[in-house]
Amino acid sequence: MTHQELKAIENGARSAMWAEGYDGQTHYVDVLKALAPAMLILATAVVLMVVIL
Fold first, then answer.
1. How many Å is the Cα radius of gyration of the chain?
2. pLDDT of residue 47 exceeding 60
3. pTM across the whole model
4. Res. 12 pLDDT band, cuts 50 70 90
5. Helix (H), strand (E) counts: the chain
6. Cα–Cα distance for residue pair 5/12, rounded to 1 Å
7. Is the sign of the CA dihedral 18, 19, 21, 25 positive or negative?
8. 3-19: b (≥16 Cβ within 10 Å) or e
């Protein structure tokens, strides 16, 4: 294989790796959905601490 062929393969792999699923937008709703369970657990812990206090 020549250097040019190797470079073409590497560039093809890189572009396929980064182009997949990236649309350039920030998905705030998805982030909030992911954080909701953790926030619920933290809120429950705070309420329990206040009740114990």
1. 23
2. yes
3. 0.49
4. low
5. 2, 0
6. 11
7. positive
8. eeeeeeeeeeeeeeeee
